[in-house]
Design brief:
The complex is a heterodimer of chains A (304) and B (396). Chain A has 304 residues and is of the alpha+beta class. In chain A, 27% of the residues lie in helices and 13% in strands. In chain B, helix 2 (20-46) crosses helix 14 (361-384), helix 4 packs across helix 9 (211-238) and helix 7 packs antiparallel against helix 8. The radius of gyration of chain B is 21 Å and the shape is globular. The chains are: A alpha+beta (304), B mainly alpha (396).
Chain lengths: 304, 396
């Protein structure tokens, strides 16, 4: 039998390697082209996935929410419930509702020294244990009266509807993320990759499925609230820390709370007119029974 | 028909006459462009998950690139104004090149936007099918289209003047276009690019009415520096100076004035952050003097060094101006990154902790690829278009 030279061995190995690799590479290239063609078609036709009809705005309503920080125990059930209700993919992290564990107790105000001092150590988003001596702060879209995101969006993909909800039209979103840069509340999420597939039995057919390259956010569960229900986060809160309702109706629970109890809104100095109100009265928290719903600690852009 | 035939014949003749070095240079640029831009194609197919951008830092190096390239286009208009508005005929030999630089920088800026957005095909519907008149992004992107059209018209008229075929009317058109391009560029293009960031009240470093002015001054400085740089490199390659010593001196003085305004605004921008006393201002200052000290120093030290270099007549030689221009361009690139990308590192809530962003290879590669592609375009266009001024030859 003829002995192979070194050059022939290398050549043979190269051919075998190419034989193994090429089909996979060609396949990957093919799927990449498919993805670009899909995106082109979405971009030109302007439709992503199945059409889902959004109910029209409720006449005369202006939706708002009250969150009682004295009652919030930081269990993250609002965040988790919201995720399931709104078909939020696992690739979206943090979820629409972020819950912070602050170093303050309910009712306590920030010290002046803290404002100018080492504010980075004040609290955390990634807590794993609930503590009685801490205040928990859920943050989400504030559905501002004068929302900066709607002004800066170049395509009107995000807009203020007549009932006060800041909406998203995924079919118009070009993914420029100007709304994210302009939102003072960090309430918007971008699909940096193709959203992880949600099992068919878990998909909420009333909420559209998103794709990569578009921004998404809390819509005050528009598919529920405009059909006479409350939001999912209100429904799942075990301590009833959240109240949702019509701010234009003086008899609604939210209107009564904000006119009778001391409350504040986030970053009012920016004049955005947020429609989420926080109560600060310290109350005893019944929290002997919960562990927080775990959060994926791998959050893009945050130090691990 | 005959004009097109003649033009094509001229272009092909020039390309055929090019030496091997030119083709090698083009080939290298083509390879860099291909490799770099392939990452951008993957991002279109798979999304931006390979990048280091995040929900916390939604705008990364591409939007910094947009501001940087738009700024670089300002030099073109200044040369046009000097020629047509102030009658500086000694700038004629670089007139066509300057306009080409302006056009290519606009293409680069629009390329940066296209590489950044989630769906570039849908973005092409702006401004005709999708629009929001209150959005500075919409206004700016529309103004870039207008600017491209204006520069194209200016290019055609300047080429006619350069080859000596423009009549009295043609010269008048070139003059009018050269003059109106300046207010259009400064007031519409650069100011509104600054306003994209200036209107964002969520970000401490952006939300200032001085930002549009700052964008105008830094655009003039970086744009004029690029024109100087291209003039010197072309002179070195051709082994013949395109402009006289006196013109180089004048260019240095112009750059010096633009730098004075930029350095003034830059210095006070940072000082105000420090002395504002607000938590966000102090946090921004901490970031610049801590984690991102390098880019901060490149920006500030670079501008001061370039200012000193252009302030002395002895240093306003081609070699001195070459170094000063390179420093200015790098310093202003650092300013764009500081302002746009690092400006977002101040957390919107203290509870978020430390936010991180450093562009990775999947962001830098498309950026380099785009730059190489446009350098290639510039090289080809300078070859096929008549660049030599046969009418206003004042060379030494």
């Amino acid at each position: 039998m003829r002995k192979l030279t070194r050059r022939e061995i290398v050549r043979l190995a190269g051919i075998m390697g190419a034989g193994v690799l090429v089909p996979r590479e060609v396949q990957a290239f093919g799927s990449m082209i498919d993805a670009i063609v899909d995106k082109m078609s979405e971009g030109i036709k302007g439709t992503i996935g199945e059409y889902v009809e959004t109910p029209p705005p409720t006449p005369g309503a202006k939706w708002g929410m009250v969150i009682d920080l004295g009652l919030c125990i930081g269990c993250r059930r609002c965040s988790y419930g919201c995720k399931l209700e709104n078909n939020v993919s696992e690739t979206i992290n943090p979820p629409y509702i972020m819950v912070f564990q602050t170093k303050y107790e309910p009712g306590q105000v920030m010290a002046e020294s803290d404002l100018l001092g080492k504010h980075r150590e004040h609290g955390t988003l990634k807590y794993t244990q609930l503590r009685k001596d801490r205040m928990y702060m859920p943050i989400q879209c504030n559905h501002c009266l004068d929302a900066p995101c709607t002004k800066v969006c170049p395509t009107k993909a995000t807009y203020k509807s007549d009932d006060g909800i800041v909406m998203m039209d995924y079919n118009k979103c070009i993914g420029c993320r100007y709304c994210m840069a302009a939102c003072p509340y960090g309430a918007r999420r971008f699909n940096w990759s193709k959203p992880a597939e949600i099992p068919a039995e878990k998909i909420n057919r009333l909420v559209p499925i998103r794709t990569d390259g578009v921004v998404e956010k809390c819509t005050f569960c528009v598919h529920r609230t405009r059909r006479g229900k409350t939001t999912r986060c209100v429904e799942v809160c075990p301590n009833r820390a959240r109240t949702f309702g019509n701010l234009n109706d003086p008899d609604s629970a939210v209107s009564k709370i904000i006119t009778t109890e001391r409350n504040f809104r986030l970053k009012v100095g920016l004049n955005t007119g947020p429609n989420i109100f926080y109560l600060t009265d310290p109350k005893k928290k019944p929290m002997s029974w919960f562990k927080p719903v775990p959060l994926d600690m791998n959050i893009r852009g945050l130090k691990s | 028909m005959k004009v097109i035939k003649d033009a094509l014949g001229y272009a092909m003749g020039n390309l055929a006459a090019a030496d091997r070095k030119f083709y090698l240079y083009c080939f290298v640029l083509l390879v860099i462009a291909g490799v770099g831009l392939s990452d951008a194609v993957i991002a279109v197919a798979e999304g931006h998950h390979h990048s280091n951008m995040s929900d916390m830092v939604p705008w990364g190096i591409f939007i910094s690139g947009l501001a940087f390239f738009i700024g670089l286009s300002a030099g073109a208009t200044m040369v046009g104004l000097l020629i047509h508005g102030f009658g500086r005929d000694d700038y004629h030999p670089i007139g066509t090149r300057a306009i080409l630089i302006g056009m290519i920088c606009i293409f680069a800026a629009m390329g940066c936007v296209m590489m950044d957005v989630g769906n570039p095909f849908r973005a092409m519907k702006i401004p005709f099918l999708l629009r929001n008149e209150t959005s500075m992004f919409f206004i700016s992107s529309s103004s870039y289209m207008g600017f491209t059209a204006l520069l194209m018209a200016e290019l055609v008229s300047t080429v006619y003047v350069t080859i000596g075929k423009a009549g009295r009317r043609g010269k008048k058109i070139a003059k009018v276009l050269g003059i109106i391009a300046v207010p259009y560029a400064l007031i519409v293009v650069h100011s509104f690019t600054g306003t994209i960031f200036g209107v964002v009240k969520a970000r401490e470093m952006w939300n200032t009415p001085l930002l549009p002015v700052h964008f105008v001054t830094s655009a003039l400085a970086s744009g004029f520096a690029l024109v100087i740089l291209v003039t010197i490199i072309t002179s070195w390659v051709n082994k013949k100076h395109l402009v006289s010593k006196e013109t180089y001196n004048h260019m240095g003085i112009m750059l010096c004035f633009f730098l004075i305004a930029t350095v003034f605004l830059d210095t006070f921008d940072y000082l105000i952050l420090k002395y504002s006393g607000t938590a966000e201002g102090l946090e921004t200052w901490d970031i610049f003097t801590g984690r991102y000290l390098v880019t901060f120093l490149i920006n500030m030290v670079g501008l001061y060094v370039a200012l000193i270099m252009t302030a002395f007549k002895k240093l306003r030689t081609p070699t001195g101006l070459f170094y000063a221009s390179v420093i200015v361009i790098i310093a202003i690139a650092a300013y764009r990154i500081n302002l746009i990308s690092i400006g977002q590192l101040v957390p919107l809530y203290h509870e978020l902790g430390e936010i991180q962003y450093v562009p990775n290879i999947h962001e830098i590669a498309p950026f380099i690829g785009l730059t190489a592609a446009l350098m290639l375009l510039f090289a080809l266009l300078t070859k096929v278009l008549p660049m030599e001024d046969t009418v206003h030859a004042t060379n030494e």
